[in-house]
């Protein structure tokens, strides 16, 4: 079969595009663990390559103090930052795909505001120290899920009405939860106020292995739920009706994606407070780098979001050492200008 | 000769929206091997009929059957394997290439990626779109996107083993005349190959050129339905469109409809 030259050029373009996408994905896969190691080396006790190697390979000549600093404090924190960033970015990719809206932030379904109400309640009642400190994340997680259930009530199930209604209901819900938060802040004691403010700006300082295990236990099912809907999310970019005609069970997909995002954002927020911008920016970067197929967008967003938050957290704990910055300050300070630059690029198309 | 059994049938379908009857007892069948054109003035209920026939909307009364089974009994996936729908408008998937967008047509077949890509490529070649294969869908013109959407719809019922149903809602509304003929020629070829094709059209001459049967919709009712030569009558068309339509039957050009300016 002979093809026109233009056709063979198109075939070549497609092949090179695929190679480029796979190459970039591979780069992210390599950069991600490398960043974890580098971030693990930097801190109040800097570690050189030889010490790092000794720690990772388990060589006996490393002092116990260093070993403890590395494995009990620094690595859990870096891993938490990576998992939290990855979860937020995955959820962002999910809601942006579902709502076909580049402005969608995982917060749009009310999870982070609900989690904030749960956490603030905890501070107001002074419960944050109970149960070995687990009451705070539990209440935040419960608050996040409760707000999504509330959204479901408003919207007579996620199935009824269109996504536009879901977005508007989310905005209303966020406003209502915001007023609850405002009331709590105004009536709180100075001490509680400080804790609340710090929490709502996000931090990975509470990291430990148990936290990482808990987050991973939520992250894995959430990621699987999103991953199995990757193809359906591709089809949804054609609109809900057309996706249904292509064989997508639109209602089931919408339910599963929202549940997955609620789990991911709820768990990440419960353990690290409210961290803005990662969930918005990381999926965009993934799409720009890897194209629009959701199996690439989801994977890329996870790696990108994880890497970004590891870097932001590195800044949070080193920029004003020995004090700490809230990581949300850094993600917003760096993410904001970056997002503006992204929007300004002539090749960036934004449609609402 | 017995008439072939329709693959898709509507039986006394009634659709009410905001207290207004949009479809009022419409019955019709889409037969394999034939292209059925649905025509009628604006607001006649053509797109609503297509939404009901495709299973997207439940009728308030009456029923739709696909391959003899009630539409509501199908899962979205099973329905998509038998019935492909090209909606009048669909959002553009920014960031997907044309080839990737056409591959989505194979979603319900669950086949390997390689096979989906092969079929998608074949569709692009058929539609003369292979040069655009690597182009981002967000950067296509309206007409190019319409042809891509058609290619995707055909990919959906391609090589499915059984004759499929193809529902096309104004598939040529953005196309120049040459591409209108090319697309409807392909649709007609699919009908020849044994598929059941329904196309909502506005252009009476394209209808005359490509339709085997015509269903004339007006005010939510099926006014008349039959072979194209029986329906393309000046009295019938003038009445339904409320303007003077002449029909010429030129041996060289086939049936031609001539529309006069209203009021003449």
Give your account of this protein's structure.
The complex is a heterodimer of chains A (352) and B (264). By secondary structure, chain A is mainly α. Chain A has helices at residues 5-41, 49-57, 64-99, 111-125, 130-133, 135-154, 163-187, 190-201, 209-227, 230-236, 240-245, 250-272, 278-290, 294-318, 327-344. Chain B is globular and about 55 Å long. In chain B, helix 4 (113-126) packs across helix 5. Chain B is built from nine helices and twelve strands. Chain B starts with 7 loop residues before the first strand and ends in a 5-residue tail after the last strand. The mean pLDDT of chain B is 92. With 264 residues, chain B is α/β, with parallel strands linked by helices. Chains A and B meet through helix 1, helix 10 and helix 11 of A and helix 2, strand 6 and helix 3 of B.
Query: Sheet with the most strands of chain A?
Result: none
Low-confidence stretches of chain A: none
End-to-end CA span of chain A:
43 Å
Q: Tell the overall outline of chain B.
A: globular
Helical region count of chain A?
15
- Please give the count of helices of chain B: 9
How much helix, percentage-wise, in residues of chain B?
25-40%
Q: What is the residue-averaged pLDDT of chain A?
A: 86
Report how far the terminal alpha carbons of chain B are from each other. Answer: 45 Å
- Tell me which protein chains meet in the greatest interface and how many residues each side has: A-B, 33 and 39 residues
């Amino acid at each position: 079969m002979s093809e026109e030259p233009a056709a063979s050029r198109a075939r070549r373009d497609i092949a090179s595009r695929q190679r480029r996408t796979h190459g970039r994905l591979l780069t992210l896969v390599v950069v991600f663990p490398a960043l974890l190691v580098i971030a693990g080396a930097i801190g109040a006790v800097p570690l050189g390559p030889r010490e790092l190697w000794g720690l990772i390979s388990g060589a006996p000549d490393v002092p116990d103090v260093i070993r403890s600093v590395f494995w009990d404090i620094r690595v859990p924190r870096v891993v938490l930052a990576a998992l939290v960033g990855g979860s937020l970015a995955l959820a962002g990719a999910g809601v942006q795909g579902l709502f076909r809206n580049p402005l969608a932030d995982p917060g749009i379904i009310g999870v982070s505001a609900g989690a904030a109400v749960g956490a603030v309640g905890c501070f107001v009642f002074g419960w944050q120290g109970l149960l070995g400190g687990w009451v705070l994340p539990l209440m935040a997680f419960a608050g996040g899920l409760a707000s999504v259930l509330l959204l479901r009530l408003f919207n007579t199930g996620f199935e009824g009405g269109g996504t536009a209604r879901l977005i508007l209901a989310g905005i209303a819900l966020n406003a209502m939860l915001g007023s609850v938060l405002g009331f709590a802040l105004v009536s709180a004691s100075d001490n509680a106020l400080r804790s609340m403010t710090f929490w709502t700006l996000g931090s990975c300082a509470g990291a430990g292995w148990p936290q990482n295990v808990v987050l991973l236990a939520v992250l894995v099912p959430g990621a699987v739920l999103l991953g199995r809907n990757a193809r359906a999310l591709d089809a949804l970019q054609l609109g809900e009706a057309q996706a249904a005609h292509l064989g997508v069970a639109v209602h089931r997909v919408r339910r599963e994606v929202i549940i997955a995002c609620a789990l991911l954002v709820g768990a990440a927020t419960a353990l690290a407070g409210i961290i803005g911008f990662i969930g918005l920016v990381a999926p965009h970067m993934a799409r720009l780098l890897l194209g629009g197929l959701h199996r690439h967008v989801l994977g890329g967003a996870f790696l990108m979001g994880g890497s970004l938050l590891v870097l932001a957290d590195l800044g949070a704990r080193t920029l004003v050492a020995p004090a700490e910055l809230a990581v949300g300050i850094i993600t917003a300070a760096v993410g904001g200008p970056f997002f503006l630059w992204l929007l300004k690029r002539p090749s960036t198309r934004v449609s609402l | 000769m017995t008439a072939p059994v329709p693959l898709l049938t509507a039986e006394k379908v009634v659709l009410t929206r905001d207290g207004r009857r949009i479809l009022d007892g419409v019955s019709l069948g889409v037969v394999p091997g034939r292209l059925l054109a649905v025509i009628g003035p604006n607001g006649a209920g053509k797109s609503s009929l297509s939404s009901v026939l495709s299973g997207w909307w439940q009728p308030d009364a009456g029923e739709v059957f696909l391959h003899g089974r009630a539409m509501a009994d199908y899962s979205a996936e099973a329905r998509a394997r038998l019935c492909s729908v090209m909606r009048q408008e669909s959002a553009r998937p920014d960031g997907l290439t044309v080839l990737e967008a056409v591959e989505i047509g194979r979603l319900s077949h669950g086949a390997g990626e390689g096979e989906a890509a092969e079929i998608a490529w074949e569709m692009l070649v058929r539609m003369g779109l292979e040069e655009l294969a690597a182009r981002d869908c967000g950067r296509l013109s309206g007409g190019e996107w319409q042809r891509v959407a058609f290619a995707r719809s055909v990919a959906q019922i391609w090589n499915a083993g059984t004759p499929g149903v193809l529902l096309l809602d104004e598939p040529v509304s953005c196309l120049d005349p040459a591409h209108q003929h090319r697309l409807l020629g392909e649709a007609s070829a699919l009908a020849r190959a044994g598929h059941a094709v329904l196309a909502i059209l506005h252009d009476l001459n394209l209808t005359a050129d490509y339709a085997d049967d015509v269903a004339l919709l007006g005010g939510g009712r099926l006014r008349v339905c039959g072979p194209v030569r029986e329906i393309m009558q000046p009295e019938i068309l003038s009445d339904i469109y409320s303007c003077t339509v002449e029909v010429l039957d030129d041996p060289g050009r086939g049936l031609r409809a001539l529309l006069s300016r209203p009021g003449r």
